């Protein structure tokens, strides 16, 4: 047994220097490493918000599972929504490595103490929305999340690698659905355009407020949690999406959208940031409905959690007595 003498324990300054060194070398912080309280709190905030988004994000598309237009579309949609549940679970596991439990985080989601992505507070009014969510929402998610594979916290970065692979499939299935509809009837083409008109601006808001109004970006980038600013990623998304819209044959609803030769990037209009703040503060079109649904599912599932906990406890007791008999 080793005894830790006060002299042997590294002091706060040495721990901070060691942490700063890992960050400066672009290496990873792992759960057992010392980390500043602010770093831990920022990670819990961002990863929990991300996990909640995946779980709440199952609702808008889940809305269409029973009304999918064919068995093939239903199988694809089921698989996608299940993937989202999986993403939520990897991310809750990552926050557990930081010393918070999934129960605690769920309570914070239900009480409104923690956020989830604004995008999931908009309704899904037609089947084209399934395609648009895949194309634009998962497309925005990929832009935002690929750099997070290189985030400085090990468990978060590793979870993001798998999530991003699945998000690519999600984006492709959305684009393929919209392409099929665009090659269909006039009514289908109109349905796609109407859906893109509703989701374009909320998709741009997913990247968060403009850099000048983003209180967390500078600190998160210095810690290597975020690798890009909100505005950089929004620009990347617009540049990636415009040519895809052209191939699809839809119009993006922004009269200011045009190629800027000098910048080598697209200029585009300003999202309605007042609307964004309203939605983030809980007053979007579907906030109350989304949280009420999640609360119902959590309460209805209480017996499953209790049964699983009782089963695990009983298995541990039986396992221990069996081990005793063998000895
Ligand atoms: N919605 O200082 P900022 C998915 C908050 S899941 C709501 O820039 P930060 C998918 C922000 O939290 C998509 N709130 O913050 C799932 C902060 O408030 P607090 C989810 C937002 O953290 C299913 C305040 O505004 N993706 O793709 O540096 C089906 C100031 O912002 C939003 C992630 O979570 C928003 N859009 O940057 C399909 C990715 N934006 O917490 C698809 C991981 C900002 O200080 N997260 N806020 O009270 C991130 O990359 C960053 O957290 C953000 C925001 C870029 C989102």
From TrEMBL:
> Might you name a Gene Ontology BP term for this protein?
phenylacetate catabolic process
Recorded GO terms, molecular function?
phenylacetyl-CoA 1,2-epoxidase activity
Which positions are tagged coiled coil? Answer: none
Q: Which GO terms describe its cellular component?
A: cytosol
Concerning InterPro entries, the annotation shows: Aromatic_CoA_ox/epox, Ferritin-like, Ferritin-like_SF, PaaA, PaaA_PaaC
Q: Which domain of life is it from?
A: Bacteria
Q: Which Pfam families does this UniProt record tie to the protein?
A: PaaA_PaaC (PF05138)
UniProt protein name: Putative multicomponent oxygenase/reductase subunit for phenylacetic acid degradation
Q: Which organism is it from?
A: Nostocoides japonicum T1-X7
């Amino acid at each position: 047994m080793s005894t830790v003498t006060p002299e042997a324990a590294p002091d706060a300054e040495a721990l901070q220097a060691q942490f700063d060194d890992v960050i400066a070398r672009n290496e990873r912080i792992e759960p057992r490493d010392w980390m500043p309280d602010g770093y831990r709190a920022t990670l819990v905030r961002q990863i929990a918000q991300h996990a909640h988004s995946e779980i709440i994000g199952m609702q808008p598309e889940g809305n269409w599972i029973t009304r999918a237009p064919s068995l093939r579309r239903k199988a694809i949609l089921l698989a996608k929504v299940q993937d989202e549940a999986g993403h939520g679970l990897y991310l809750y596991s990552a926050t557990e490595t930081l010393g918070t439990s999934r129960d605690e985080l769920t309570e914070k989601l239900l009480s409104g103490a923690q956020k989830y992505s604004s995008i999931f507070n908009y309704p899904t009014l037609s089947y084209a929305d399934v395609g648009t969510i895949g194309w634009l929402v998962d497309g925005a998610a990929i832009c935002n999340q690929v750099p997070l594979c290189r985030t400085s916290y090990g468990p978060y970065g590793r979870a993001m690698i798998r999530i991003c692979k699945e998000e690519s499939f999600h984006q492709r299935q959305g684009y393929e659905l919209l392409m099929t509809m665009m090659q269909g009837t006039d009514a289908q083409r109109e349905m796609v355009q109407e859906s893109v008109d509703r989701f374009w601006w909320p998709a741009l808001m997913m990247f968060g407020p403009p850099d000048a109004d983003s209180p967390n970006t500078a600190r998160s980038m210095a810690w290597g949690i975020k690798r890009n600013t909100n505005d950089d990623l929004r620009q990347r998304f617009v540049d990636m999406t415009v040519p895809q819209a052209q191939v699809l044959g839809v119009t993006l609803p922004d009269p200011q959208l045009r190629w800027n030769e000098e910048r080598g990037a697209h200029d585009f209009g300003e999202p309605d940031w007042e609307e964004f703040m309203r939605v983030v503060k809980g007053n979007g079109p579907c906030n109350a409905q989304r949280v009420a649904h999640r609360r119902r599912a959590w309460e209805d599932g209480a017996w499953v959690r209790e049964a699983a906990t009782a089963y695990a406890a009983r298995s541990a007791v039986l396992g221990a007595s069996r081990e005793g008999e063998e000895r």
